[in-house]
From TrEMBL:
Residues 49-60 have a biased composition (Polar residues). Residues 70-87 have a biased composition (Gly residues). It comes from Gryllotalpicola kribbensis. This is DUF5666 domain-containing protein. Residues 1-98 are annotated as: Disordered. Residues 1-31, 88-98 have a biased composition (Low complexity).
Length: 98
């Protein structure tokens, strides 16, 4: 594990169980955006509310059909020097289910 601030490496023990989930990221095209999937969008919104996406994460909805990640979530660290997200700022994009 490398500390991004100090660039020092260290060893950490990580425990996984049968309920551990794994995520694979890959480059894709706009064809991955289909009705019924969840999309978490990062980018800047213009005055009309249209978001110029810099990143889109597509995932399957939860078993109840909801999108748990993205808009309305707990927020997270900002990208490329940006502030952390609050999870409720529509100018940072959002999540949609279709």
């Amino acid at each position: 594990m490398t500390n991004p601030q100090t660039k020092k490496t260290s060893t950490k023990k990580v425990t996984v169980t049968s309920s551990t989930t794994y995520t694979k990221q890959q480059t894709t095209s706009s064809s991955a955006l289909v009705v019924g999937q969840c999309a978490a969008v990062q980018g800047k919104a213009d005055d009309s509310g249209t978001v110029s996406a810099t990143s889109i994460t597509v995932s399957a909805p939860d078993s109840d059909g909801s999108c748990a990640s993205g808009f309305g979530g707990a927020g997270g660290p900002g990208g490329q020097g940006g502030p952390g997200g609050s999870g409720n700022d529509s100018s940072d994009g959002g999540s949609t289910n279709g």
